[in-house]
Amino acid sequence: MLRAVKSISRSRGGLRVINNQRVISAANVATLSSLSRRSLATSSDGFLQGNNANYIDEMYDAWKQDPQSVHISWNAYFKNIESSGVPASQAFQAPPTIIPTPAGGAAGFIPGSSPTSEDVVTHLKVQLLVRAYQVRGHQKAKIDPLGISFGDNTETPKELTLEYYGFTDADMNKQITLGPGILPRFAEDGKKTLSLKEIVDNCERLYCQHYGVEYIHIPSKEQCDWLRERIEIPTPFKYSPDQKRQILDRLIWATSFESFLATKFPNDKRFGLEGAEGVVPGLKALIDTSVEYGIEDIVIGMPHRGRLNMLSNVVRKPNESIFSEFTGSKEFDEGSGDVKYHLGMNYARPTTSGKHVNLSLVANPSHLEASDPVVLGKTRAILQYKNDIGSFKKSMSILLHGDAAFAGQGVVYETMGFANLPAYSTGGTVHIIVNNQIGFTTDPRFARSTLYPSDIAKAINAPIFHVNADDIEACVFVFNLAAEWRATYHSDVIIDLVGYRKHGHNETDQPSFTQPLMYQKIAEKSSVIDYYTEQLITEGTFTKEDIDEHKKWVWNMLEESFSKSKEYQPTSREWLSTPWEDFKSPKELATEVLPHLPTAVEEETLKSIGKTISEAPEGFEVHRNLKRILNARRKSVEGGEGIDWATGEALAFGSLTLEGYHVRVSGQDVERGTFSQRHAVLHDQNSEQTYTPLKHLSEDQAAFDISNSSLSEYGVMGFEYGYSLTSPDALVQWEAQFGDFANTAQVIVDQFLSGAESKWKQRSGLVLSLPHGYDGQGPEHSSGRIERYLQMCNEDERYFPSPAKLERQHQDCNMQVAYPTTPANLFHLLRRQMHRQFRKPLIIFFSKSLLRHPLARSELTEFTGESHFQWIIDDVELNKSIAAKEDIKRVVLCSGQVYTALHKKRAALEDKTTAFIKIEQMHPFPFAQLRDTLDSYTGLEDLVYCQEEPLNMGSYAYVQPRLRTVLAETEAHKDKTLRYAGRDPSASVAAGSKAMHTAEEEAFLNEVFSS
């Protein structure tokens, strides 16, 4: 067996200097040939990294099969180790034709001492040269159609020069034995040797033409060999006339579409694909290949550039519809709509083999990479519902990126980080960088710190294929190779399609203001269709007349669609990326009276859930402190009293799964709960075993999935939003570690949650669970920024809703915002989310202090019978220690945990004439409930709104104008005004010290009870 040594010796004895270049000396052959898989990783030359030592083992494996397949020097070495077991340093013995080995057994010949010894050194140097092409060849590849950033115009890496190894013209005709490390796949064609010149020419052809490959960073030898088997072959790709006809047809459609739009709509922004049209035939080939490997659903995400071409030629949106959007004939029957280059689409598209694939292009705002996690979340959900988690054969994601955005947007890394996480993996994403070599007006040298925009992908060991967008056949080869990789290894793969942007940032922009030289080159260039037609005509595949005739036919088809666009009647369904079959839209729904939606559950069912969630399997050792918590949880449900927040939530989740609703919960530390409250996953104290009780309620229950996420908010919230799009029958909840941590996911809230239904008709029932509450923990652990969510709510504060509008408050709202204060109300709120005929995003704020507060307990009767979610809670009806309603003089409106401080202060003052009304749901606003409740206080003199947040934050600014509208509708309080009691305006969210926090709280509590 081969014996490992730690590294190549860096002494002069181990490395010789020849023509001022460092090469491996034949004097060290014996040591070199005993290297293990790791031994070359320490080479200081830089390009001998990762798998570079594998060739020694490859030669050993080859020798085992056929001793004549390796050089005679290796044959002698391996034979001595196998037969005599001598030390590695003494195992090599020179063949008779080499000068005698000196005492000690080490190979003692020196380069130049004899022709045969020179052959050994040459063989070793050629191995290093071939390895250099595998590692650095992409840097010499002609991948830049402009000749600006990559390839010929850049400095050739020294490892790719013959001088680096001391080769001269005299060496070029030397015959080199093929095999491990030197183009072994060429030997399969019967060739045993190639001249040095032939080897160099082949390496140039394989690694330095119109595509370049980066893969040596991948730690898997199997995967590297897999790629070499497809790259290091005499002809990596060759297309038949029929295949070329298909490529040409797709390219004509892609280029003609852009030209047609430019002709018909010269003054419109369209963010065209000119300069990178090769992505269309490449992507269509990738889809066809993936379908042959079993893919049934493909979810696509992309920015605005090229989206119209994608919709037309890949997803197959009717051109009549696209043209009607340009002419302005499209009317949005619901919502506000969006610009045409943000819209999505869903379509079952046929492939060349006759199979069909469901393509979904996710709608995307101008936040370029925001749709990345959305696409992956949606793909994961499809895999879940197809029972394909683990094999990942039926659904996949494709993400298109701009070069500047891929390198610069942090959510790209957050999303790529999901690749191997058990609860987030989708079996590999194909990333396509449409590399325009510019970001708006910013040159790459100012937009990233790496040579390529794709370099970040090395963090997840993805192969990277760079390809010149002007070589359409090379593009198709690379796209097919990416599809095969994904199907084989179910891991990410990157295509860096290097093109250019023919126009400015949009078609009305003037790019020469900032990139004059680049746009001089672009102006002088021919189109990719011209290059390809010239190639096909030159090689005799098609005639110019054939090609011109097909171009004319395509153009006429576009003209026909254009003429039909004037009468085209679009439907919102055609730009839905996820249509929910048999699930009515809010507009289609019959009137549904709220809040009395039946969300209660039978007592027997709740007790069964309570028992299951409080137990572990026999032999499973739960932490002793957690045993006490679980016992208390069980007793509270059995006894029907003192049910806490986490138990109420678990009862909601469990009852929904028993009814067939899939429940998925994710976020940082959600399994235990940030505040050690949930304990949904139990950990055996004597092993790595875990147990999730909510998975074991019934054999017929739906899936319950809960998983700690990576330390990401933007990416994970986007993922869960995407997950929620796939089916209306899943309760999907993302929880922030602290409420304000959702700040870093603000794009998802702003662009997707709050407005997606209005802009794109894309519905979601995603639940955000955000800790909120002032406990003296400082400015970063206090506020979930409730004011930001309320500001995005769409209900009109100026008008009291009509009876019809009151019945449709939830159907018409864009999202719901609630701050429940009892476990029962949380229970009903979560169940209400699934028992409606429609879906709306739900933002739940929850108090850390209420998780265990005695005022935040519920009885079992509040979960059963006729119970339901309460929009407001009037404590006069619950508190018998204060006066009757007619004797109440002051009503304090509040929301959330501040109620507990008010309750304590009122008791301390022995105030019997102050009542509290907790507003449990802020949006839709409880107009009617507050009107009727306030009218029941006939002796009211003072009306106060109390919040613990500063005046410029919290809910006051949202509530105040709505309360004014409510008061105008009351019978007895039309002249009342609302008084504010809370913290003064502040730049910081909260005080940084406990003492200051307490002083501020005492001050506003005193303000509440002042006369």
From TrEMBL:
Give the first-level EC class, as a single word: oxidoreductase
Protein name in the entry: 2-oxoglutarate dehydrogenase, mitochondrial
Q: What is the lineage of its organism?
A: Eukaryota, Fungi, Dikarya, Ascomycota, Saccharomycotina
State the species of origin.
[Candida] anglica
Q: What is its EC number?
A: 1.2.4.2
Family membership: Belongs to the alpha-ketoglutarate dehydrogenase family.
Cofactors needed by this protein, per the record, are: thiamine diphosphate
Say if the entry is tagged with keyword Cell cycle: no
Q: Which UniProt keywords apply?
A: Oxidoreductase, Thiamine pyrophosphate
- A single Pfam family it belongs to is 2-oxogl_dehyd_N
- Function recorded in the entry: The 2-oxoglutarate dehydrogenase complex catalyzes the overall conversion of 2-oxoglutarate to succinyl-CoA and CO(2). It contains multiple copies of three enzymatic components: 2-oxoglutarate dehydrogenase (E1), dihydrolipoamide succinyltransferase (E2) and lipoamide dehydrogenase (E3).
The family database entries (NCBIfam families) matched by this protein are listed as: 2oxo_dh_E1, PRK09404.1, PRK12270.1
The chain positions of domain Transketolase-like pyrimidine-binding read 643-853
